[in-house]
Amino acid sequence: MKTRWYKDAVVYQIYPRSFCDSNGDGIGDLRGIISKLDYIKDLGVNAVWLSPIYKSPNDDNGYDISNYREIMEEFGTMADFEEMLEGMHARGIKLIMDLVANHTSDEHEWFVKSRSSKDDPFRDYYIWRKGRGKDGKRPPNNWTSRFGGSAWQFDEATGEWYLHLFSKKQPDLNWENPAVRREIADICNFWMEKGVDGFRCDVITYISKEEGLPNGKFNPIMCGDEHFVLGPRYHEFIRELNKNSWAKFDSYTVGESTGVTFENAPECIAEERGELDTIFGFEHMCTDMYMEVIPHKFKLPRFTAVLSKWQSLPESCWNTLFLENHDQPRSLGRFTGDFGDKRYEAATMLAVAMQMQKGTPFVYQGQEIGMVNCKFRDEDYLDVMARQVFSIAAKIPFGKAIARYCLARRARDHARTPMQWNAGANAGFTAGKPWMMLNPSYKTINVEADKKAGEKSIYAFYARLHAFRRGNEVIKCGSYRQLDKKNKSVYAYTRSHEGKTLLVLANFKNKTSKFKLPPELSSGRAVLSNYPDSALSAEVSLRPYEAAVFEINA
Ligand code: NOJ
């Protein structure tokens, strides 16, 4: 029986490598997470999404899995995992694991066998093709990897090419093969039988490729999408996986859904479809980026228009609400402009603006203390994507400068610097040498300092916000209406349910913004605010980054 518990959840995402290291090897681990379970509980979240913790050679930090049933050695053991899961459940926290099923690591035994010979029974677990041209030395088609360059890698052993939509160490699985689909369902069942509560499904919309793998329309960065994003058998594959695994448990699934639009989202998540429960829509995250990499100016109306559109999904669909994850730069600055000394106000404003909408909020580690982007030198970037960007950029005029400009704003590394626990050695993240540089901001931005900030603790504000959401039917079920859609400074909306109305005002500017309200919304009391004395009137003067929720007098 599905209880749809996720509709009452706030999910905290942990990127385990960077969260907390318990044994001084410089890499976050499961025992580190265990030591912070009370910290997570006290934040008032009731679910955790854990980025991959499976065995992996770490070409893409765990998103390249070499064994789906084993824990990565640096992260600990299966016994640690079980203890962590038990600790979460004992605190009323559900656990969602990352399911990376579009591809494996090239070190997975399936691929090792697959590449060994054309006749191996595992050959057909992956997507192998002959090259083009007389000598077969040109890739089978023009598709590009999401990390740049061709999506094909030539393999000497058998003289054929394999498809990898990510790094060449991440060969794509062939979902046309029923054995592959059975393997994935078995893996899900293995973890759910252990008590795991669901999955965040990595690039799940890429699993079905069009027959014949035709060339894509020319696009130097992302070529081929139209032949594999929500491909011809996508829905069939997901329904089958749901039936053979997820539906047997009280599970929750959220798909990382590049390419899903407002128009086709219901086909992916409407309850009656029996597919995914929710998706991460990325449209709002693209309002200040072209093609996910090239930054352009943030404009509030463009951003809120997308949020509002997604709030109008049909009743049978459920939204997710997020501004950060391990692939995105930090939201502070990005969506707030220069916040100067108003970091508390800016961070809490974003929290209110997002979390008062309808849907399940996701908070990414560090967001709850207002962590910010890092200043990297070229050699500091460790992520496979950043390295690939530099290597491609080196081949074009001014490439390096362009790469630096884009990565400073867009690199995934920003989200992956170690969690800042205190101002002491290595920010309290590790007793050893951190696997990745710390953001020097840890001297002032860290959990200990935040907790000491009293009324200006971002963590405490998040905890209050989560407590406020809990059991609040207006936030859970209420209708949504945006006010003054073209406003460049203030995001304003109401949520209404059974005669109760909440008004949400969020000033995205580091200066006072005035906002006029219609008479029926101009009297009420503040029930949550990041200033101690927010008040309502016919024309509200919102202070820098002021965000408040008002209960409107009926
Ligand atoms: C999406 C994940 O979030 C990202 O970190 C990863 O690199 C790709 N999928 C490939 O698995």
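^ 1-deoxynojirimycin complex. The pocket of 1-deoxynojirimycin is lined by residues 60, 63, 100, 166, 202-203, 256, 326-327 (CB under 6 Å). The first strand starts at residue 11 and ends at 14.
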